[in-house]
Design a protein that fits this description.
The chain has 116 residues and is mainly alpha-helical. The protein has helices spanning 21-41, 59-64, 66-73, 88-94; strands at residues 50-53, 106-109. Strands 1-2 form a two-stranded parallel ribbon. The longest helix has 21 residues, at 21-41. It is elongated, with a radius of gyration of 16 Å. The model has no long low-confidence stretch (mean pLDDT 94).
Length: 116
């Protein structure tokens, strides 16, 4: 999600769980590369899409800082962090003919974080 929205540093405890600017820049680069490749490879019937997962912190992070996880979860309308299975639907869509008319898209799976 930090490829298209900026971090809210109010939810972080110092630098330990925050992401440096290079992280967001790299993620934005993946989104642009997706669009670029989609425009060039469509002539060969190759679809290129990407997924932008929202808050999916590692289990160690969840155990080490439950207060941070509460603040992170409160940043989106669904009021929870992501679970790996939450990515299954979009992945199935992009890997099947159900997504046959999609290319150059970035699918945000972020609990609604990017809507605020």
């Amino acid at each position: 999600m930090y490829g298209h929205v900026a971090p809210d540093y109010r939810i972080y405890d110092g630098d330990r769980f925050s992401n440096p600017p290079s992280y967001g820049a790299a993620k934005a680069g993946v989104i642009q590369l997706t669009k670029y490749c989609a425009s060039f490879l469509s002539v060969d019937k190759i679809r290129i899409n990407c997924i932008s997962p929202g808050p999916f912190p590692l289990e160690d992070t969840q155990k080490e800082n439950p207060e941070f996880i509460k603040r992170l979860a409160s940043k989106n309308p669904l009021n929870r962090i992501g679970d790996p299975h939450d990515l299954n639907g979009a992945t199935a869509l992009l890997c099947s003919n159900a997504g046959a008319y999609m290319t150059g898209q970035n699918i945000c799976i972020d609990g609604g974080w990017s809507t605020w």
